[in-house]
Each structure stands twice: as C-alpha cells, then as structure tokens.
Design a protein that fits this description.
The structure is a single chain. This protein is mainly alpha-helical. It is built from six helices and three strands. It has helices at residues 18-37, 44-56, 61-68, 72-84, 105-129, 131-148; strands spanning 59-60, 88-92, 99-103. Strands 1-3-2 form a three-stranded antiparallel sheet. Strand 2 (88-92) and strand 3 form a beta hairpin. The chain starts with 17 loop residues before the first helix and ends in a 10-residue tail after the last helix. It holds the Pfam family MarR_2.
C-alpha cells in the first residue's frame, strides 16, 4: 500500500479570508434586494423590521430586539424612520415603564407592497443562482451558524 497521498484524498485547504468572501456575497445579494425593495420606499433592513413588527406585534421593544438578534439601541435607531413615516407606532404597554410596538394600517399596507418587491428580488436570486444552489446555500448557512453558536446543526426539511 502506498503512503503517498493522492490529490483526491487530501482535504482541500481553505484559501483566502472567509469573512471577506461572506461580506462580498452579502453586499452583492443585499444590493439586489435593496434595488428591488427600494422601489417601495423601504430599505431591505426596514422591510425586515416592519415584517417582524407586523407578524409579532404588538410587542415590547426588548422582545423585538431579542427576536431580531439586535441591541436595544440599534432597534431604537432603526425604528425611528418607520415611526416618523407613520408605519409603526408605540403604544402604552401593560405597565407604566413599557411600550408596545405595532404596525399601523399604513405600515401593514407598506409591508404588503414591499413584500411583493421582496418576492421579486428572491425570484431573481433563485434564477441567477439556481434553486438547488439557493437551497444548498441556506442549509450551509444554517449549519454554519449552528456550529459557530456551538450547537448541533439541524437539517431543515422545508
């Protein structure tokens, strides 16, 4: 038996910076989504926030920040334009110290408009990358996040 390793038996060694490559991908995908969703008057980040609020609201700010994996200060900063536009409102919570965040009827309508644009962006990604590659990318991202968080990766069946 030969002790010489063949090219196929040697695991590939990663080349380059993973962080850089991921940021390049995020910028390219983000630009595509921003261009399409931007036609609704929202940035993709605003659409995501408005979607969370529409689905989960009325919700306390601290709970929303946890759901979105962001700090309270980041949430507050990102909420301000949505509140100023009249798409989101703060209402008194169950006690004097808490506020509930919810989408206004105008915010629900804006989300529906932006959601149509988001779907168009997603279809463009699916077309350019191919549906199988998008499914594989989602699975790889989910597994990678789980491993980086120290958990066992789960396998989506959706």
């Amino acid at each position: 038996m030969s002790t010489v390793a063949t090219a196929s038996s040697v695991p590939p060694k990663p080349q380059g910076c993973t962080n850089l490559k991921l940021r390049q991908l995020v910028r390219a995908v983000g630009a595509l989504y921003d261009a399409e969703v931007g036609k609704s008057g929202l940035k993709i980040t605003q659409y995501s926030l408005l979607s969370y609020i529409a689905k989960l609201g009325p919700i306390r700010a601290v709970e929303l920040a946890q759901q979105m994996h962001m700090s309270a200060s980041t949430l507050s900063r990102n909420l301000r334009p949505l509140i100023d536009a009249g798409w989101v409102e703060q209402a008194a919570g169950p006690d004097a110290r808490s506020w509930l965040i919810q989408a206004t009827p105008e915010g629900q309508a804006k989300r529906a408009e932006a959601q149509r644009r988001w779907r168009a962006a997603q279809e463009t990604v699916n077309q350019r990358l191919g549906a199988a590659r998008v499914v594989a990318l989602h699975a790889l991202i989910d597994q990678s996040l789980a491993l980086l968080d120290g958990a066992e990766p789960h396998h989506d069946t959706e």
